[in-house]
Every structure is written in structure tokens, then in C-alpha cells.
Amino acid sequence: MKTVISTPDAPAAIGPYSQAIKANGFLFLSGQIPMNPKTGQIEVVDCVGQTRQVMENIKAVLASQGLTLEDVVKTTIFLTNLDDFARVNDVYGACFKADPPARSTVQVSALPRGVKVEIEAVAVLR
């Protein structure tokens, strides 16, 4: 059994997908891009600011289910330029101070709306 999760505190889906799906004791978050959920716009252009907004969006989806970043067990980071890795990693690392989740990072040729970073996550439900 699966449950579709949606919150107005994170960007609405811009295609045929859900913000998250709850299933089998896990919350599977779709990739978040640095879209401001209130305006629906990409308001920052640098990778640091974009990563901060992405993490805020992830936190909003988690919070809608009573979860925090501490409940995240796996993430995947998609970057359009691996030269941004160190700067993105600094922001990301500040969010996961202790016992960070498993992670993969890959470079892709492009991301939705021309953004530099997208992050998806899997969390364990309490």
C-alpha cells in the first residue's frame, strides 16, 4: 500500500509525479529543485543558494510527516557541474552533522528549469 504525500510548504510537482510516497515504512521523496514554494520561481542562481533552498524544500516535505533530516537514510545529488561538488557538499554537510545518510552524487547534462542541483531522499518513518 502506498500513500501520496503533498504539502504546500514545498514546491508543487511540475509534472506527473508526487512530492513523496509513503510505503513499507519509508518515505520516498522526489528530487527537489531550488524552487521557492511560495512563488514557484527559481530565485537563486549560485549552487550554494540553490542547495540551501533544496534542503529547505526537503525539510518541508519531511516535516509534513513529522520527520526531520535525522530520519533520512539515503540521498542522491544531481549536479550539472561536478566542479560545484565542494560548495554543494559544504551546505549539505552542514545539514547532516551526525550520522549522515548514505549518498550518491552524479553529474547530469541538465536539470529541470536550468537549475544546478537537485536532491532526492529516502527517509525511515517513525
Question: In words, what does this structure look like?
Answer:
With 126 residues, the protein is of the alpha+beta class. It has one domain (2-124): RutC-like (60s Ribosomal Protein L30, Chain: A), CATH 3.30.1330.40. The protein is built from two helices and six strands; from the N terminus they run βββαβαββ. The protein has helices spanning 47-63, 85-95, and strands at residues 2-5, 20-23, 26-32, 72-79, 102-107, 117-124. The protein has a six-stranded mixed beta sheet, with helices on one face. A hairpin with a 2-residue loop joins β2 (20-23) and β3 (26-32). α1 runs parallel beside α2. The longest helix is centred in the middle third of the chain and has 17 residues, at 47-63. The protein is globular and about 40 Å long. The relative contact order is 0.24. The mean pLDDT is 97.
- Kindly report how far apart the N and C termini lie: 17 Å
SSE string, helices as H and strands as E: EEEHEHEE
CATH topology: 60s Ribosomal Protein L30, Chain: A
How many domains? The number is: 1
CATH architecture field: 2-Layer Sandwich
- Oligomer category: single chain
- CATH top-level class: Alpha Beta
* Radius of gyration based on Cα positions: 14 Å
Low-confidence stretches: none
CATH homologous superfamily label: RutC-like
Q: Helicity level, as a percent range?
A: 10-25%
